[in-house]
Amino acid sequence: MATAHQQPNLIPHLLIPKVKVIPLKVAFFGEQGTGKTTSAALLAAALSKEFHNGAPVWATDPELGWQFPKRRIFQPEGIELVQRTVPTFKAMMQDLRDAERAGACVYAVELQKIWIELLATVRKECGNNWGNQLNKLWGEWVSAFLNSKMHCFALGRVGDVTDEVLDEKGEILRIKTGEKMKAGGSSSFGYEPHLVIRMKTETKPARRKGLVIDGEGRMLHCGHVLKDRTWELNGKILRWSDKAGYKPGGYRQVWESIRPHFNEVQATMGQVQLDTAANSSSLIDDDGNSEFYQMRQRKEVMSGEIKGCLDLYFAGQGKEEKQVRLAVNDLIFGVKSKEAADALPLEKLERGLRILHAYERLAVKNLESKEHVLVQIHDCIVEYDMGISETWDIPF
Q1: Which of 6, 9, 150, 175 is the most buried (most CB within 10 A)?
Q2: CB–CB of 323/166 below 8 Å?
Q3: For 231-250, what is each residue's pLDDT tens digit?
């Protein structure tokens, strides 16, 4: 295993690919044991042997899972696997640069522990500004991942996307609305790669003399394609059988499944780079008074003012208070969460804010029950939409 102070011994002629190859950017995520590392290793071996003359594969692996395919896949194929295990964001960024300089054709990283380390570090070191610094650092990593001339794979655990909703009885329920990779914060790193595969397992039942034998069978690794920007594999389930042993060329089952995506990527005839130096400063004048800037600032301030209005009367954390707040949000904006409300057009936010201002001006607010509150909010909506409510100027 190469350490942080050792460079792998690479043979120069191995670094010359057979053809110009546009790199793949792939994410594998799922629960432990679903085959993320093995599937990524088989795809890496295929790319190395088929297109890069057996050039090395590089893995940032703080979960210590790549030593198994190192012995069972890469050694039989004659491919060098360089494995780094330092579980820090800084080390991951350095590994990516080292891999490119060393001539690796594939770079893979296990993201879970690294994301947790980065999150803990910026919270400790950056004070109240930790969120901005986290986004900045993570954005730099995403750009490096996507711009690399190597094939790049990101591996991560699965996390649930949830939201609070009201059921028919008015009870607050937190329901699962989707899945994401546990890295990259609220947006999830799974939005970035060109191909995203959600790994699961199935068991193909054993049969003896025509009878199904319960509790026995062959494991299948199932790759549910959640996103393919080329459209070739969208919605498909790729199934790869688990094998007790490996022989050279054993990567072909995985490779043939993903080949349609690879072929379509190559058909783009070029690698598009993210221009990290570019910015939109031309939209903003010296005083910061461009139309775009003003609209963005107005929307941010308006979202904060709406939250303040809701907090003024509906800020309680009890079950009933949460029910009222969700119901008020839904009645005024047609959505239940702050995140969804923030995404609404500016004119809808302004309408909602004016309705909340009208509610604030009521001489008597009936807060005895959710029904009473909603009746008063409904009256404010009707009066505002009919143009008969008292106007309250918005001072921004």
Answers
A1: 150
A2: yes
A3: 999 889 988 877 777 888 88
Whether 63 and 111 have beta carbons less than 8 Å apart is answered as: no
Whether the CB-CB separation of 170 and 183 falls below 8 Å is answered with no
| Domain range annotation of the chain | 12-266, 283-386
CATH code of domain 12-266: 3.40.50.300
What is the per-residue pLDDT across 108-128, written as a single tens digit (0 to 9) for each? 999 888 988 888 888 888 887
Query: Residue 342 is encoded by which pair of tokens?
Result: 């923030």
What are the E-state strand segments in 158-269? Answer: 158-166, 172-181, 195-208, 211-228, 237-241
Tokens matching residue 324: 């009222």
Low-confidence ranges of the chain (pLDDT < 50): 1-18, 160-162, 176-178, 186, 280, 282-290
Q: Which helix (H) or strand (E) holds 30?
A: strand 25-30
Listed residue (240, 237, 234, 246) closest to 218, CA to CA: 240
Helices assigned H by DSSP within 194-318: 252-266, 291-314
